[in-house]
Each structure stands twice: as C-alpha cells, then as structure tokens.
Amino acid sequence: MTWSMFAIGWFSVGNYQRSVPHFLKGFHNAQPPFGVWTEYPAGAKDFPGCVNFVTGAGGFLQSLVFGTSGMRMRRDGLHFDPPPPSATGTAARRLVLHSFHYLGWRLRQEVTEASATYELLGGSGPQLCLEVPGTEPRELQPGGRASGPRGRSSIRVCQGAARPALQRRLSGQSAEVLV
User: Fold this and answer.
1) Given Cys at both, which of 13, 28, 142, 178 links 41, Cβ 3.0 to 4.6 Å?
2) Full domain range(s) for residue 15
3) 3-state class percentages of the chain: helix first, strand second, coil last, to nearest 5
C-alpha cells in the first residue's frame, strides 16, 4: 500500500527514475495462481499476513488510476499530466484507463510516449471539452476521439453547457441533474 503512494508522488513530480521501483513493488503482494492480494509479499518473515488484503489492492489500483493516468480531480474538472509508459519500469508501450466515469459520461484515456488520446464512450451529461494548453477547447463527442501531445490537459464542462442542463431540469424536461 505504501509503495503505491510513493509511486504516485514520483509520477506526479516527473521523477520517473524514482517512480519505477515503487510502482514495481506494488506487484509483489499479488500471489499466484489467482492474484490474491496478501498483506506481505512472498518471502517476508510475516508472509502472508492478512490474505485477500483489499486495502493493499486498493492502493495498487490507485497507483494505476492516479499514477499512470496522471489524473487529478478538482472542482473545475479532471486534470491530467500522464507519465510516459516507460515510467512504469515495464515493457508497456501504451497505458489505457478504460471506462472511468465523470459527470454521467464513461471515458477512456490512452497514453503513449508522445501522445494522449481521450474518448467519450457513452452516457449522458453536460457537454465535455478537452482542453490542452495552447489550443482551443475541443468538444468530446460520443464515440469520437481527441488527441494531443502527452502532457497537461483537462476535461471540463464546455463553456455555457451547464446552464442549459440546469434550465431543462428546472423546467421539468429532464429527470436528472446534469450540473
């Protein structure tokens, strides 16, 4: 659990040399043949400790969701600054975060050494835009993809999109709040 937090920290400050050993240590607690998570890695004096150690597994998942995607949730939207796949210390050439949910939408992120691609997979909610510094915001369309260089970007409600959703809700035309 601790190693995943260190990995996320090193990913977020861009020190990929230091992120690698911490990220890789996260795999040591998954035990064959079914990948059951244990409190201690094999070979530790207290092994296995707690079996089916879901808090440790949850920490590892956080290193995937928030470390390798570079995602941060803020009041104004989702912000990304993903590391390159090589920062994991694995042979990965791309990293994919598939089917994460935001404001009623299901999204996908794919990161390579040079680019980041975002796809709106489905759902319903306010119109979302991809914002990459130095470019105009791009509306994300269901089934469509928007790409940019790997680096800082954000997904936010498009300018002016929340107000019409709230107005429809207040006028009784919608059964869900989309703000």
Assistant:
1) 28
2) 1-68
3) 30, 30, 40
Rounded-to-integer distance, Cα 164 and Cα 126, Å: 9
53-85 tens-digit pLDDT: 899 899 999 999 999 999 999 999 999 999 999
115-123 and 77-80 strand pairing: unpaired
Question: Does residue 82 sit in the same domain as residue 166?
Answer: yes
How many Cβ atoms from other residues are within 10 Å of residue 100's Cβ? 15
159 lies in the same domain as 105: yes
Distance CA 8, CA 22 (A): 9
Q: Which parts of the chain have pLDDT scores under 50? A: 163-169, 174, 177-179
